[in-house]
Amino acid sequence: MPDITIRNLNIWYGSTHALRNINLELPDRQITAIIGPSGCGKSTLLKSINRLLDLNDQVRITGQILIDDYDIYGKNVDVTEVRTQVGMLAQKPFPLPLSIYDNVAYGPRIHGLARGKDLNQLVTESLKAARLWDEVAHRLKESAHKLSVGQQQRLCLARALAVQPAVLLCDESTASLDPLAARGIEELLNTLRQHYTLVMVTHDIDQAHRLADYVVFMWLGEVAEHGPAPQFFQQPQHSLSRAYLAREIG
């Protein structure tokens, strides 16, 4: 599994300097939680890792992001391939207007990863990895929109896993779920760390404390502090980190 190395990353939205001189090394097969107050640049940093920011023509980016020593902002990079290798689980589930089966099969089909029996097996394995198979095995031809919100989020996770990414990004991926469904997603992410490099944005400090192996604390577009989660939560080094944790934990 890859390490993610970020070097001198700067991002502008028009004239607004959103991220300033970000330098990080995020560990493989662990969960990195990006935390900090609203508007500090958490989601911008996350979306830079799969080049989703390219969809906004007002964005300007300098610096490097290396995934296993491969610079995803280098010349002649296949952006589609980057987004295949770096999956995303968004805040709200967005199932495609297709059947449950076709939602999961969509990525492998367009990328030519599997067909026929191999595709059926990949769909099955992805739904099992997302702990959804037992609930939908008998209704794969039904519309994905008939699923509950929690099931739809697990379906979106299965869809992301089906293209066999190396990295999984989670942007407030439990924020729209009820507590039971949210805990189910947390349990899934905890299991998936064995096979993927996970990077998550969360406003929920308790969630970060439960899941994170590594923490990045951001403030006004900069990284104020980062390090192993136990060290960060037990003895934060930066005064901003201490003040933020005191406020959020109470």
Automatic annotation (TrEMBL):
InterPro entries: AAA+_ATPase, ABC_transporter-like_ATP-bd, ABC_transporter-like_CS, P-loop_NTPase, PstB-like. Keywords: ATP-binding, Nucleotide-binding, Transport. Residues 4-245 form the ABC transporter domain. SMART domains: AAA (SM00382). The keyword Nucleotide-binding applies. GO terms for molecular function: ATP binding; ATP hydrolysis activity; phosphate transmembrane transporter activity. One of its GO terms (cellular component) is membrane. One of its GO terms (biological process) is phosphate ion transmembrane transport. This is Phosphate ABC transporter ATP-binding protein. The lineage of its organism: Bacteria, Bacillati, Chloroflexota, Chloroflexia, Chloroflexales.
